[in-house]
Design goal:
alpha+beta; 50% helix; Glutaredoxin; globular; 5 helices; four-stranded mixed sheet
């Protein structure tokens, strides 16, 4: 399985996926920590967190997959939502909550 196939499988078989530096319990960058906090405040208790620091292939592969140069990257129901700034803006505007709610419906 290629790295692109592995990433595709992760984002399509899990309702919420966060590619981040570190883990939700121990984020290794401020941007990843902020998205973890937003998800927590938005009530997203369960999601797949992929630590890109554990796998250089995933770290580059996710940038290629989304054609997005930075990490963290959030996916909901297979759709790329964005990085830290976009997730923060969507949370503040109220756009993120309905997307997260749709996962449970």
């Amino acid at each position: 399985m290629s790295i692109q196939e592995k990433i595709h499988t992760q984002v399509t078989e899990n309702p919420i996926v966060l590619y981040m530096k570190g883990t939700p319990e121990m984020p290794m960058c401020g941007f990843s920590a902020m998205v973890v906090e937003i998800l927590k405040h938005a009530g997203a208790a369960q999601y797949l967190a992929v630590n890109v620091l554990d796998d250089p292939e995933i770290r580059q592969g996710i940038k290629d997959y989304a054609q997005w140069p930075t990490i963290p990257q959030l996916y909901i129901k297979g759709e790329f939502i964005g990085g830290c700034d976009i997730v923060r803006e969507m949370y503040e505007s109220g756009e993120l909550l309905p997307l997260l709610s749709s996962v449970n419906s």
